[in-house]
């Protein structure tokens, strides 16, 4: 592959990785701070996409639908935490996995009842509907660049909130020692509620902004869920920094795994086994460092 | 608190007990529904998930054909048994077995997903139940897995690919083509069909690109296509994947310089989701919008009136399934027991379908015209006949030992 | 024997008698369905060995189930039948070997990481069968002819007969139950119980806990292989979903639902789970919505409620009723 194509593939990998980061950051945040594994996280990505489609259709404008969708996602997150999630704090991870697995089924069916099973599309908002020419045959849609920009902005925002605000301080303290924080008079319950709502809203936001390019279809949540887990496990459960590094790593491995050719001793490895590359990476990192790249040592 | 716990447990105990009793009870049909001379038809289609829309269209078409025939098959009333296959091959044998062994249906209609169909065939072949496939295009169904009781009213993947290959071979300015598809049986069959039809004309395949099924991250491979600079791209995807691919392809600017072609499934049912990007896209399929034959127009009118929807290729397949079944049943006066006669009647039936006239090949696959279509607005407009009365892949036909 | 232990034994004996008599008065479909439940029960018991008794939450257990099925499929020559007496041990052996290979790597990890690593390896195996040409790709492969159980001239059973398949499954259910019971009451079982409660302490007492855990992992994998082989025999089709994480999650649910850490719990859990599925799928339409079509909704709702309210599973309900005490909601560490 020539250098020019290599650069473009690099861009593809980074862009995919950044979107993965946006989705998985919520998952790692919820686990790191609340100790909850939410396997239904992918469902919120799907819910975000369907919300974007539905609201854009009803409100007529993608830019109005976006904040409306975010608001709805926050409300859903708060409600969910209030009713179900907080019963999981005392339980071990097995029960969290199973309960949230049940939620996946429930969400999928509710989606089917509310919005049907057809494939839907959203048009890219006219403001961003142009492309930049990269080569004589290929252009890069500006919208995708915008998605990446949003992901970077959100990453920056998260960093700022966690490192430089009071809320961030409480969050960091709460993840280190819950009882202590509570005895200091901070309402840990409210904190958890906010964190959970934030976590799933991040996934929903990813679904919303990606919808114009990813189209909206049943099962889109399942596809992204398992990759999210790989991201979180590689990066370290609870580490946002780790999620960023892992997402980019996976984005690049996945992208190049599809286009490189690798044959060892007559066995065709790439691109035939490209779907396994991500799991191989995960297994390798886990065997080297079980807690992930930036995870806290158990 | 203890009382609350006890109450909840009682509730769940009740629900479990009730549900299991219900499961055992509701699982005993037929006894309650009463016997009679009704013909039992089992529909195993995807009613949920990505293929839900094709599944519904097939059933609609099927019911329409039966209704037009007076609501009876061979003079007998019809009793429907429906199973949602969820496009899940893992559950397919259980689901088929439910229809064949528990509900004891006389004929099974299904399915859409090739993996599901393959598993279904395993069960119906062993049981000897009449099985009509209204969509799944896997070659094996009328190839290595063929059987006297297995029929197909839709297409084989190879047929559609071959037709487009022939079309491209006829265009002098298309000297190299890149192919891209999901790497699974169906994808491979479409691409093989295309190659069989195209390479005869002296062109070459620039590269065969594959993406694991059902992944939809195409950017890396689109970049590859751009660097290959072929004269055209042949792509097979379906459903959500097709919509995303066409949009991505357009947004990468490739549509301007490298024409995109594919089987009809690239654009069937997803034009609304794709939006304007698909304008001018050419595909080949055994059906098209605006065929404008009297037969097709009558069908489309009736379908739209009955279901308030526009029909598509899936609806036509369902409709033809009904026609085929009716023809067979008529010949044996509804007596499914006369297996040999029934099969012979089905084999020689000529179907006057909305898609045109077709009949069954030796391996029970439709021999039919494949049309070239172009996307105009929200329609796949008929452009002409790509290949007339096309049979199946010779290699596949040879593997059928009937 | 105590009163409750004797009652327990009587109930089990009665259940076994009922199961033995089933093919006499039940239709073909129900015998096949019962065989399916029994196969799932065997799989669930094997997972319970890890989950309930050793404390290893394996999210990739279905992989060993699927591997056995695929082994049979690949060992069956085209259009011919394999021999049961060779293919069965082969399939179990391959499952055990796979468990040994994977377990060697994953049993080093703990807690949440163990869950994730088992998932990762299972996914790798899944994609190996799903994406490559090794075994038919994602449509799965057929077993054209079911294995023949001939030893020279003697053929004790015919696997093309659904009732024989049922009895074979039942035989293995009882055999696995007795084997596990024996295992868990032996010194080996005591060590396992100790590891679950406090591994550190067991290690400080001098036990090589890694080896014990690995042994459990392999035994569980082999038993899962039995279930996988039987499943492949039943309908003659294997596909990659047999190795998928959805099946692993369903089996975990069966174990939890029935009651972790018991042997009859998973059996009951498997039965209730499969019957619930069938029941919810058979729901009629009401108020314009086809309830049966959306059975996932009820299944998911049930899972959520069961996880919240039945931490000890259905067995917990029964034993709670017998002993008349309310079980704690908090589970052991």
Strand order of the largest sheet of chain C: 1-3
Biggest sheet layout of chain C: 2 strands, parallel
Cα radius of gyration of chain C in angstroms:
20 Å
Assembly state of the chains shown? heterotrimer
Percent helix range of chain C: over 70%
Cα distance, first to last residue of chain A?
A: 43 Å
User: For the terminal residues of chain C, how far apart are their CA atoms?
Assistant: 30 Å
Q: How much strand of chain A?
A: under 5%
Rg of chain A over CA atoms, rounded to whole Å, is 20 Å
Tally of contiguous helical segments of chain C: 13
Taken in chain order, the helices and strands of chain A follow as HHHHEEHHHHHHEEH
Q: What features would you describe in this structure?
A:
The complex is a heterotrimer of chains A (298), B (402) and C (333). By secondary structure, chain A is mainly alpha-helical. Chain A has a domain at 11-218. Chain A has helices spanning 3-34, 41-59, 62-83, 93-115, 142-164, 166-176, 178-183, 188-214, 220-235, 240-259, 274-288, and strands at 131-133, 139-141, 262-264, 267-270. In chain B, β13 (366-376) and β14 form a beta hairpin. Chain B has two domains: 36-155 and 292-364, Response regulator (Rossmann fold), CATH 3.40.50; 158-285, Rossmann fold (3-Layer(aba) Sandwich), CATH 3.40.50.2300. Chain B is globular, with a radius of gyration of 23 Å. Chain B is built from 14 helices and 14 strands. Chain B has 402 residues and is of the alpha/beta class. Residues 26-36 of chain B have low confidence and may be disordered. Chain C is mainly alpha-helical and 333 residues long. Chain C has a domain at 27-243. Chain C has helices at 3-25, 28-54, 62-75, 84-106, 111-131, 162-185, 187-197, 199-204, 209-235, 245-258, 264-281, 295-309, 313-323, and strands at residues 81-83, 141-142, 145-148, 237-238, 285-286, 289-290. The longest helix of chain C is centred in the N-terminal third of the chain and has 27 residues, at 28-54. Chain C starts with a helix and ends in a 10-residue tail after the last helix. Residues 324-333 of chain C have low confidence and may be disordered. At the B-C interface, α1, α3 and α4 of B face α2, α5, α11, α12 and α13 of C.
């Amino acid at each position: 592959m020539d250098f020019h194509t290599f650069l473009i593939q690099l861009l593809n990998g980074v862009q995919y990785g950044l979107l993965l980061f946006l989705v998985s950051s919520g998952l790692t945040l919820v686990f790191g701070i609340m100790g909850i594994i939410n396997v239904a996280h992918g469902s919120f990505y799907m819910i975000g996409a369907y919300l974007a489609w539905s609201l854009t259709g009803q409100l007529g404008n993608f830019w109005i639908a976006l904040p409306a969708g975010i608001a709805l996602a926050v409300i859903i997150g708060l409600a969910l935490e209030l009713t179900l999630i907080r019963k999981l704090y005392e339980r071990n991870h097995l029960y969290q996995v199973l309960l949230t697995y049940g939620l996946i089924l429930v969400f999928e069916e509710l989606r089917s009842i509310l919005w049907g099973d057809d494939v839907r599309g959203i048009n890219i908002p006219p403001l961003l509907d142009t492309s930049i020419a990269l080569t004589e045959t290929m252009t890069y849609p500006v919208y995708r660049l915008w998605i990446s920009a949003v992901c970077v902005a959100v990453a920056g925002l998260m960093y700022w909130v966690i490192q430089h605000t009071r809320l961030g301080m409480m969050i960091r303290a709460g993840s280190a020692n819950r009882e202590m924080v509570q005895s200091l008079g901070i309402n840990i319950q409210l904190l958890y509620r906010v964190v959970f709502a934030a976590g799933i809203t991040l996934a929903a936001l990813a679904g919303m902004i990606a919808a114009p390019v990813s189209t909206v279809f049943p099962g889109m949540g399942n596809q992204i869920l398992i990759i999210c887990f790989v991201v979180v496990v590689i990066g370290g459960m609870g580490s946002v920094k780790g999620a960023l590094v892992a997402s980019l790593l996976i984005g690049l491995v996945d992208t190049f795994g599809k286009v490189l050719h690798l044959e060892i001793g007559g066995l065709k490895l790439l691109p035939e086994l490209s779907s396994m590359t991500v799991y191989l990476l995960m297994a390798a990192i886990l065997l080297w460092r079980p807690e992930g790249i930036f995870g806290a040592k158990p | 608190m203890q009382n609350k716990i006890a109450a909840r447990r009682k509730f769940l105990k009740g629900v479990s007990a009730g549900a299991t009793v219900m499961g055992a009870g509701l699982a005993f049909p037929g006894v309650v529904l009463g016997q009679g001379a009704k013909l039992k038809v089992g529909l195993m289609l995807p009613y949920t998930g990505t293929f839900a829309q094709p599944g519904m269209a097939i059933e609609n078409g099927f019911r329409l054909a039966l209704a037009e025939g007076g609501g009876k098959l061979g003079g007998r009333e019809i009793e429907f048994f429906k199973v949602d296959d969820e496009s899940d091959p893992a559950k397919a044998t259980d689901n088929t077995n439910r229809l064949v062994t528990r509900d004891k249906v006389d004929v099974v209609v299904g399915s859409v997903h090739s993996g599901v169909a393959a598993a279904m065939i395993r069960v119906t072949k062993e049981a000897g139940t009449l099985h009509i496939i209204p969509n799944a295009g896997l070659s094996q169904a009328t190839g290595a897995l063929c059987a006297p009781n297995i029929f197909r009213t839709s297409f084989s993947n190879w047929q559609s690919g071959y037709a487009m290959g022939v079309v491209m071979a006829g265009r002098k300015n298309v000297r190299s083509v890149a192919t891209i598809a999901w790497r699974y049986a169906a994808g491979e069959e479409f691409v093989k069909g295309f190659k069989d039809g195209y390479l005869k004309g002296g062109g070459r395949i620039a590269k065969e690109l594959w993406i694991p099924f059902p992944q939809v991250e195409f950017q890396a491979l689109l970049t590859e296509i751009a660097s290959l600079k072929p004269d055209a791209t042949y792509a097979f995807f379906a459903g959500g994947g097709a919509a995303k691919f066409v949009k991505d392809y357009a947004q990468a600017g490739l549509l301007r310089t490298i024409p995109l072609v594919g089987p009809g499934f690239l654009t069937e049912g997803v034009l609304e989701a794709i939006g304007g990007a698909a304008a001018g896209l050419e595909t080949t399929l055994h059906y098209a919008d605006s065929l404008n034959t009297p037969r097709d127009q009558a069908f489309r009118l009736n379908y739209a009136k009955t279901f308030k929807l526009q029909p598509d290729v899936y609806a036509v397949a369902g409709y033809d399934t009904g026609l085929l079944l009716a023809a067979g049943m008529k010949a044996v006066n509804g007596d499914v027991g006369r297996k040999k006669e029934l099969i012979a009647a089905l084999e020689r039936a000529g179907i006057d379908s909305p898609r045109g006239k077709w009949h069954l090949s030796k391996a029970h696959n439709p021999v039919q015209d494949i049309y070239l279509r172009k996307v105009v607005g929200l329609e796949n407009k008929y452009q002409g006949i790509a290949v007339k009365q096309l049979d199946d892949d010779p290699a596949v036909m040879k593997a059928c030992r009937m | 024997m105590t009163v409750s232990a004797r009652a327990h034994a009587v109930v089990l004996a009665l259940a076994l008698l009922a199961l033995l008599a089933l093919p006499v008065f039940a239709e073909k479909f129900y015998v096949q369905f019962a065989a399916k439940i029994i196969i799932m029960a065997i799989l669930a018991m094997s997972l319970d060995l890890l989950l309930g008794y050793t404390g290893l939450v394996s999210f990739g257990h279905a992989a060993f189930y699927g591997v056995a099925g695929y082994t049979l499929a690949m060992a069956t020559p085209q259009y011919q039948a394999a021999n049961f007496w060779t293919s069965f041990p082969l399939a179990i052996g391959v499952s055990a070997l796979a468990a040994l290979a994977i377990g060697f790597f994953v049993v080093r990890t703990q807690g949440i990481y163990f869950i994730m690593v088992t998932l990762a390896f299972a996914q790798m195996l899944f994609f190996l069968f799903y994406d490559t040409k090794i075994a038919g790709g994602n449509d799965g492969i057929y077993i054209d002819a079911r294995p023949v159980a001939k030893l020279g001239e003697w053929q004790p059973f015919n696997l093309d007969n659904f009732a024989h398949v049922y009895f074979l499954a039942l035989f293995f259910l009882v055999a696995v139950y007795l084997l596990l019971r024996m295992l868990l009451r032996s010194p080996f079982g005591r060590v396992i119980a100790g590891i679950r409660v406090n591994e550190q302490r067991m290690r400080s007492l001098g036990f090589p806990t890694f080896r014990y855990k690995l042994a459990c992992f392999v035994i569980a994998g082999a038993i899962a292989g039995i279930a996988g082989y039987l499943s492949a025999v039943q309908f003659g089709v294997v596909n990659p979903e047999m190795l998928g994480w959805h099946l692993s999650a369903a089996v975990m649910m069966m174990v939890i639902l029935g009651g972790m850490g018991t042997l009859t719990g998973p059996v009951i859990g498997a039965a209730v789970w499969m019957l619930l599925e069938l029941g919810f799928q058979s729901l009629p339409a009401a108020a314009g919505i086809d309830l049966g079509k959306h059975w996932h909704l009820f299944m998911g709702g049930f899972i959520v409620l069961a996880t919240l309210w039945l931490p000890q599973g259905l067995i917990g309900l029964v034993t709670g009723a017998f002993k008349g005490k309310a079980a704690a909601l908090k589970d052991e560490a």
